[in-house]
Amino acid sequence: MAEWRYWVIGFVLLSGGLAGSAQAEPVWFSDQPPDAEWAKRAHHAHGGMIERGRGGVYVKRLWLRAGGEPASAVYTQPADDASFGVFGIDGESLAPDLFKVASGGGITFPMPEEGFYNAYFIERSVEDAVLKTSIVKAEVLKHSCGEGHDPKLTASRMPPRDRAGVPLEIIRERLPGEDFHTRIRSGDKVGFRVHYKGSPAAGANVSLTTREGWTKQVVADADGRAVFKLIRDYYPAWNDFDKRHHEAFLVTAEYRVETPGELNGTPFEKAHYRATLPGIFYPSEVEYSSYLVGLIVALIAAALGAGGVFLYRLKHSRAGRERLQ
Amino acid sequence: MKRLRAFINGADIRRFRFWVQLGFFVLLVYGGYFLINLGQSLPTFSCGFNQPGRAGVCYLLPLQHQTHIPWDSIISWRGLGILTGLLTFVAWLFVFNKAWCGYACPLGTIQDWMTSLRQKLGIRYSTYSLDWFTRLKKIKYILLILLIVIPFLMANSVAGLPTLPEDMGTPFCKICPARMVIPAFTGDFSQWTVDFSTGTAATMTGLGMLVLGIFFIGGFINKRFFCFFCPMSALHSLFSKVALLKLRKDGSKCTRCGDCYRACDMQIKEIADDVESKTLIKDDCMMCFKCVASCPEEGALKASFMGIPIYESTEAGFFKRMTKRRKR
């Protein structure tokens, strides 16, 4: 159904021309600058690093990185004929800019409105009669507390979106009650859906790799779902602990279909799709906060307060004074 | 019209206030569940940490976020954000003045419920000596200055000194008992913890739990204990003179009997002593109008809105209320 949509969106995504070759290593988007020079331009915001454009509009810069482990993945540059696209809050197509610098490359785009933006970068090639397609995706949040916290607006902009025309797509499911301020934390169970041309990709191999290289692989169920429990991946010295530490994860989905076809006149017999979606998570609150100590502090304060009042009243009442003498 | 006025002036302000406070409590603590959103510049403790129950956000929370701003950004769209927030706050205050404290504040309502519990248990309340009262009332201004200056010093280095640590962000919220108490009414106790992630966070959250313990005892034995120290009250007082709702006094009718002072939960002595001023809104006043209800002198005290009296002291009203109370 609606096969035409794949053509229309495909045109938008592939308007830069089809890429030379899909890389052997998974390629993914990162908003972490490659060096100190680029880090100076970036600011922390809800949803990750941003730059400020004209009039204070947030501008997102996504760098391409190659490598299965976030900690060791290298910054890479997009091919000249790469295809890419960004879709805004209402699914409208935005026009990102491709950039290439000595330390890497990627895309930049403005984020004028609150909500999630989906960015894609697609490479295709035919090798040994196999169509290899790498679909790099990032789901980017734009939120500024200065623009308010209208619950209706937030609720309307929380549901995840997929994109017709993207052959294989990973969609992160929202946590219960998630809003623009929700942080995914170690210990949380996070669900992903994998869609092949808009339908669940049952049987797709899905893996989640943390920054330090811990990996778990699962097979997507009949609904294309894969669920991972995020493990703790942050072990600093106790005095270096940072509750705002970004722990990174990379979700990779691989899917194979036996569909012959051709790409730019080169025939292929099967197709191999690989999609990536990065994310961040934070240390669990139970790692650094204590109810017990909190209650002890409050109870001691209350007991001292009550005792002080009792003694003061005793001292200042006639009967009390007599008793104290 | 005369009969309507007599009815209003003879009304039991305590009962009226109880129901209005309950209504505001439900609105501000649970309104978010009905997607009610009154914005983020409310001049009352609609706690921003009470998610998703809050129906708006106490202005002090965004103010602390907004003042976390580098010098060079003040004359920019961010500076405009501070100005817009302040103007919205003043607009809310312009209508109801400090009655936001006496009738709408959920934390104030909780303290009034604690006072009722104490009365039911037959435990007498405490008051401050005049000397202590004068000293303690300055604390709210100090807190107001700190909650603006600390976020600013987190974003700016002054005289080459290092900036303050990020964990001091929203410093007043860290020690405000509303952060712990109000979400608890929606079953959320997540703020009742000490955060050990850094020394600063541990100090601030530990201080918050310490204040919570003191709040429970203080609120139980002292009427509106926390309101003496509330920086929101200090911020109100900067703009309260221009508001539409006013408490007026006709000094020529005042006999200085002191009934109004005895009724005042905030121990404002000027309400009885000052026979010169036409308008009596002191920085601690929460405009509960219990003073008006307790005054036996015809027209000596009145609440007025845009200059129109809406509730005033009458002899008939006074005796009606006294008779009712004796029967109870």
Spans of chain B of at least 5 consecutive residues whose pLDDT stays below 50 are none
User: What is the global morphology of chain A?
Assistant: elongated
The rough form of chain B would be described as globular
How large, in whole angstroms, is the Cα Rg of chain B?
21 Å
Order of helices and strands of chain A: HEHEEEEEEEEEEHEEEEEEEEEEEHH
Query: Greatest contact pair?
Result: A-B, 36 and 39 residues
- Model regions low in confidence, pLDDT < 50 over at least 5 residues of chain A: 1-22
| Beta-strand residue percentage of chain B | 5-15%
- Domains of chain B, number: 2
Major sheet summary line of chain A: 8 strands, mixed
**How many DSSP-defined strands of chain A?**
22
* Fraction of helical residues of chain B: 40-55%
Strand order of the biggest β-sheet of chain A: 7-6-10-11-21-18-15-16
Multimeric organization: heterodimer
Characterize the largest beta sheet of chain B: strand count, sense, and whether it forms a barrel: 3 strands, antiparallel
Structural class of chain B: mainly alpha
3D structure, described in words:
The complex is a heterodimer of chains A (325) and B (328). Chain A is of the alpha+beta class and 325 residues long. Chain A has helices at residues 3-13, 36-39, 151-157, 291-316, 318-324, and strands at residues 27-30, 43-45, 48-52, 58-66, 74-75, 83-87, 93-94, 97-101, 104-111, 115-127, 130-142, 168-172, 189-196, 199-200, 205-210, 215-219, 225-229, 247-257, 261-263, 266-268, 270-281, 289-290. Chain A has 2 domains: 3-176 and 194-202 and 249-279, no CATH class; 292-324. Chain A has an 8-stranded mixed sheet, with no helix packed on it. In chain A, strands 1, 2, 3, 4, 5, 8 and 9 form a 7-stranded antiparallel sheet that branches. In chain A, helix 4 (291-316) crosses helix 5. The model of chain A is unreliable at 1-22 (pLDDT under 50). Chain B has 328 residues and is mostly helical. Chain B folds into 2 domains: 13-236, no CATH class; 244-327, no CATH class. Chain B is 52% helix and 5% strand. Chain B has helices at residues 2-9, 13-30, 60-66, 77-96, 99-104, 106-120, 130-136, 139-155, 171-175, 177-184, 199-221, 231-239, 259-263, 270-273, 290-294, 315-327; strands at residues 194-195, 245-249, 301-305, 308-312. In chain B, strands 2-3-4 form a 3-stranded antiparallel sheet. In chain B, helix 3 (60-66) runs parallel beside helix 8 and helix 8 packs across helix 12. The model of chain B has no long low-confidence stretch (mean pLDDT 91). At the A-B interface, helix 3, strand 22 and helix 4 of A face helix 3, helix 4, strand 1 and helix 11 of B. Strand 22 of chain A pairs antiparallel with strand 1 of chain B.
